[in-house]
Amino acid sequence: MESQLRNLVIDAIFPRFCASCHKEGSLWCVVCKEIWSFKPLAPACGFCHREGSEVTCLSCKSTTYLDGLTAFGPYANPVIRSMLHSWKYIGDRDAEPVLQQWLYRDADRLGPPMLPFHIVPVPLHEKRKRVRGFDQAYVLATWIEKMYGLPILPLLKRSIHTTPQAKVSGDQRRLGELDQIFSIDPEYKDFVPKHILLCDDVFTSGATMDAGARILKESGAETVWGFVIARGK
Fold first, then answer.
1. Which CATH number characterizes residue 220's domain?
2. Which domain holds residue 117?
3. Among 13, 155, 158, 220, which one has the highest count of C-beta atoms within 10 angstroms of its own C-beta?
């Protein structure tokens, strides 16, 4: 009932336009579903964007905890950005099958390193989750679970409410400033696997995901690899 009411409100206040051609009626029209394409990101360090490999470069590795990052596409792409905005900030869950289709289509390209990973979503604070009505990172985790047959383990809890990093200007983001926002859920404190695929929707400065990687490694993880829909620059 709550989700139906939410959709009625969205329909009434926010008319849907195709994220690519802007035709009114839906977030993703039939034509764009068939013809849309984009240039994938070159493999690069998620923090400094040095191209060559998705593995965190040696220079950044000395001050970060995330071992590498896989991203579907660039956050600067207007179509990807529009779809994520409709999903997260408007709460239009009609974006989900579109995003899921994009990931499934590129599943081979996006496959993580061949390790026995457990998927750990980067959680929302309970306050934001109540407002939004869903946790987008957990939804993404369920898609990855189906794509690669990996188990989900909700290890992290978010104890401090912060401004979404995608809404913070680049000159105000500081790597390491969010290192205290996560803790390990007491229910899972005795079971932190060695290899973790940490997932979220967007990677901008890397501060949020690296804070999650830090607490996971301090709790016993050996490898923490990131997986996101969009990566900023």
1. 3.40.50
2. 40-231
3. 155
